[in-house]
Amino acid sequence: MSATPGSDLPMDLKLADGMPRRSGRWFHKRYLLVLLIPVFMFLGGVLGMYFQPVPLQKFYEITGLTPGAGSASPIALPPNIELPAQLAETMLPSDVVGLARVIPRGDVSIVAAPYGAGDARLSELLVGVGDWVDRGTPLARLDNRDALESAVLLAEANLAVRQAALLQTRSTVLSSRDEAQATLDQARSNLREAEANLDRTGKLAGSGVATGATLDTARAAVQGAALSVTRAEATLARFSSVHPDEQPDVVVAGRNVAAAEADLARVKLDTQRALVVAPIAGTILDIHATPGQRPPTEGIMEMGDTSQMMAEVEIYQDRIASVRAGQPVELVASALGRTLLGTVESIGLTVGRQGLISDDAAANTDARVIRILVALDASSTKLASGYTNLEAIARIDTSAATRAAR
User: Fold this and answer.
1) For 180-219, how does the pLDDT look when each residue is reduced to its tens digit (9 = 90+)?
2) Which DSSP string do the residues of 227-277 spell out, in sequence order?
3) Cα–Cα nearest to 332, from 311, 306, 360, 316
4) Per the confidence metrics, is the pTM higher than 0.70?
5) What's the order of all strands across the beta sheet hosting 122-125?
6) 3-state class of 252 per DSSP?
7) DSSP-assigned letter for residue 20
8) What gap in Å lies between CA 77 and CA 49, rounded to an integer?
9) Are the C-beta atoms of 276 and 110 separated by less than 8 Å?
């Protein structure tokens, strides 16, 4: 087909009937979409199996199916946990797994320097790693012992001085009371003598022998003697109205003695700053300081009650609903060469961040977990007592509680 000279070639080809011809590009896009739909479905299935939403987990729990077609590494497991082969082969859909840490009962106790030790350095270690000690047993001594003991000697000397002052004050009060009694007796004697003299002078004045002036002098002597008796009685009353130990001077001296006794008790208590004692009964797990060194911030030593070993297990929050106290637990650690057995003892009440991290560098370290405590049996406790903080993988048989309930 040829075009006439000077005419332009048409941009859109048309069919013989005048309808526009369909573009081949639209045909390819349609078939490309048809091919992508299975790809998206496959990716959605893989992601759903990997993250396992709650409906999918319920489906596997009801049907009893094991995702992964019975492979050695089922994918119906919490992410970021690589199970040992012997554990993965016997994995059940109802099992719950989590990372675990072997600990003594009550966890590891950090033994720090006594409160108020200041710049004291470690003088002597009294125990070694592996020793079993009771609560309150001395573990180490610090070099501030001599200074604290000298303060005790000074407080004892001060107390002795205050006690002597109390005895002196009490003796003075008793002497003053006896002296006041003697003064009163003498004043009464003088009064009787003055009264007798007044009586004689009055008779002499009546017979004209004594003058009026002599009689007045006798009367004045009687009045003076009476005043002396009154003064002596008042002085004696100040000492005899209350018990000698309740006299103000004695009370003050007694308070001084009490203050000295309190000061002595305080400095004796301060001597405990030179001694490091065991806060619990348990085994010495590690020692972080040597004699001559200041107690480090991480503590002088670590100890724990290894007579009952435990395991702290972190369970993902979406799997905790099926965990109950008393369910059997199996822990696997490659370092031991055998499994540890125990039961769930308690379940935590809070949801927190994951603290135990697997060897996977791409593991999710921001997962929300709940911590449970597992009590190991006697044989497992004996084996694990030398592996505090050992990391393991725990498998909880949640179907055991269901069988027991039936």
Assistant:
1) 888 888 888 888 888 888 888 888 877 777 778 887 888 8
2) HHHHHHHHHHHHHHSS-GGGSHHHHHHHHHHHHHHHHHHHHHHHGGGGEEE
3) 311
4) no
5) 122-125, 138-142, 275-277
6) helix
7) B
8) 10
9) no
